[in-house]
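Appendix B.2, paired examples.
Example (i):
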Amino acid sequence: MAFQSGGQRPVPRSVPARPEARDYLQDYAALVQAVPFPSLVVDHRWDVVLTNSAFTSLFRDVGPHPTAMPGENFLRFVLFHPDAGTVLGEHESRWCLPMLAHFAAAVERCGHDHGLQAIRRDIAEDPIMEAAYRHGLPHWIRTVGESAAEPDGAVRPLLHPDPRWGATDCRVIDETPATLRDLGYTRLTLVLREARRPASGPRRPRRSRRPAGHLTVVPAPEA
């Protein structure tokens, strides 16, 4: 998220052409910034339009990546960034598979979209990710139900870099008003919960970096 000179009001990454829509989004950006929990606004391909300071703080230790930064495209970050598992707890089962399901639904609706097609090509280039998408994902949906892919209301683990939060959970809440939805955007807020403390006392959570673009929870199909 960018800021205007003086660092006062956040500026959307993309601005609608219609003046009334542009004014609405700019004011909405100020609302998002005022929220104490990580919050983001995305379009149908999960390109990030707005984030707030709490979102930036959550992902502050994530290393650089040419195409999968959390503030650029959140779907790509979840699927392809090697540091995703250092922030998104139980990354593969609790974040990656639901996002793959959401992506599959988006492809069904907007398969002609060039941005979605580019993500689909990147999935196809990784054999394990492709196996997860083509074979593991349908099995996962049959097991947990299609509603598990919906972000609104889901409780998912996080590993926050701020020790005041540490290993915790968040509830994903869809806060999209009708006007924002009409512009083609969705707003999601990660409502943080109290940190989960082990019985032996506070301990910094173990954070692992996974190989770029690879899943392990869904094996390749048998020949």
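Example (ii):
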Amino acid sequence: MLNQVEIFFSTLTRRVLRRGRFTGKNELSEKIDAFVIAYDQTEAKPYCWTYEGTPLKAT
């Protein structure tokens, strides 16, 4: 199962990096920064933890 970080980097790769052409590191950095800002404003959702800290029981 993919964790949240892997899902985010997969999305970044598909939407920005794959088949992208960048003239240098500065342009690449700007594109990534713009994607992160847009993603945070439109698609990011807070994760609600459900684990309460009690030990798990084997059945």
